Structure prediction request, 159 residues.
Amino acid sequence: MISSLGSALSRRTLAGSLALGAALTACAAQAASLTMYRDANCGCCLAWAGHVERGGVHDVEAVNHADMAAVKAAHGVPADLLSCHTAVVDGYVIEGHMPVADIERLLAERPEGVAGLAVAGMPVGSPGMEHGDHRQAYQVIAFGPDGRKVWSSYPGGAS
Prediction:
């Protein structure tokens, strides 16, 4: 009786430990530090970093860089997807005013053939580009060796 009780407790303890380990691994995958490269004269980049840090899960290290074209080229950002700042997180490239939810989804899913995500240009209403309740429609594009695809879409609008 005691040995079967001990065995049952051991199985429960093992199952609980595995569940806790999986939960901690998931949290660790989402809690990541980003390095953001930016032109020192661009203020919207810091506003975007504030958006990313707002939930208290991520940290952003801002690195001023005099040659942003070189940074983007070094990280393989396609020319038609450029924005004002480029961030790197866990080996992925994040270009432009990306919603934090898309970054977290990328880190959780880690899709094959995706090198990064981009929001081309500087759409009004995207994180760091807020202007009241005015929003331009924009898409988040996943890019990499397997090509491109729409990762998510955000509608425009104003009141």
Q: What stands out?
A: The CA atoms of residues 20 and 127 lie 33 Å apart.
